[in-house]
Specification:
- There is one protein chain.
- Helices cover 7% and strands 38% of the residues.
- With 290 residues, the chain is mainly β.
- The chain folds into 2 domains: 123 residues, Trypsin-like serine proteases (Thrombin, subunit H, Beta Barrel); 110 residues, Thrombin, subunit H (Beta Barrel).
- It is globular and about 50 Å long.
- It starts with a helix and ends in a 12-residue tail after the last strand.
Length: 290
């Protein structure tokens, strides 16, 4: 898992401030700026990606998100990781739903500047089983956020992501972006007690660090969120905390030190009904149930 206060900040104390941000010229890592658009071809439009709509949590990153059919009058949702919940890591098999929360989030504008504080009314959904997501319901609607801050929510794609797609991971915690491509998909990704299904594997230039947990993974072809950043293999160990391993359909285990991963988000869309209400009984909803 990519939480900052144990790993990344300790590294800062041990190695000095220069160890945290990558050098300014590194193409995979930009500090407090939107990444330069990728080269355009005659047949492809690549969306510019910035920080607007992302949020900083006390220990992670996240984003204000909407479903394709969400309405301006709906209470807004914030997406992050299940392992970023203020209640601690959910156990394997545990699902948290409709739990009261007053957690606060710093909303960022396109330049990565905090423009205001949003507050949760509840944890609408959270789990680390099959996937690693948390969804908070806010006390403000999309229309209120737009009116007050001039910032729109990011839209979740409702289809499975595609290998080779150019993506940008946008960290509100560090105000930093990472650009690469989807390298492929992992049948099962195991880390400690948890197992995630059909995870996204990045190409190596998305060298995300602690604090990037919960960052939206944006498809640069569409501008939509296709996954949520959650982990990477730090030390080359196999299937331990902070060292996830890949397991294929035959049970073969592969370890890729330095490679990072995300959990797909298209499967959230069928589980959200009118009024942005999480309803696990809806047709097509496959999220784990309590």
């Amino acid at each position: 898992m990519k939480k900052p206060l144990v790993g990344a900040l300790l590294a800062l104390l041990l190695t000095g401030a220069a160890a945290a941000p990558a050098v300014a010229s590194a193409p995979s890592d930009t500090v407090a700026q939107a990444p330069a658009p990728a080269p355009r071809s005659a047949s492809t439009t690549v969306a510019a990606v910035d920080f607007a709509g992302t949020v900083a949590l006390s220990n992670c990153s996240g984003s204000v998100v909407r479903m394709p059919n969400s309405q301006p009058s709906d209470y807004a949702l914030v997406l992050s990781n299940g392992h970023c919940l203020e209640t601690g890591f959910p156990a394997a098999g545990e699902v948290v739903m409709n739990k009261r929360s007053t957690r606060s989030f710093t909303l960022l504008n396109s330049a990565g500047t905090g423009v205001g504080t949003l507050r949760a009314s509840k944890i609408a959904y959270g789990t680390m089983t099959d996937t690693d997501i948390s969804i908070y319901q806010l006390t403000k609607t999309y229309a209120q956020i737009q009116s007050t801050y001039g910032i729109s929510a990011l839209t979740l794609a409702d289809t499975h992501p595609v290998a080779g797609t150019p993506i940008t991971v946008v960290s509100g915690y560090w105000k930093r972006t990472y650009s690469c491509n989807i390298d492929g998909f992992v049948y099962r990704l195991k880390e400690g007690d948890w197992t995630w299904k059909d995870s996204v594997r990045y190409t190596s230039t998305c060298n995300t660090i602690g604090g990037t947990s919960g960052s939206p993974v944006v498809d640069r072809n569409t501008g939509k969120v296709v996954a949520v950043n959650n982990t990477g293999n730090e030390d080359g160990q196999s299937c331990t905390v902070n060292n996830p391993c890949e397991v294929d359909e035959s049970g073969n285990v592969t370890v890729r030190q330095g490679i990072n991963y995300a959990e797909e988000t298209y499967q959230i869309v069928p589980c959200v009904g009118p009024g942005n209400v999480i309803d696990l009984t809806r047709a097509g909803c496959t999220l784990p149930k309590p």
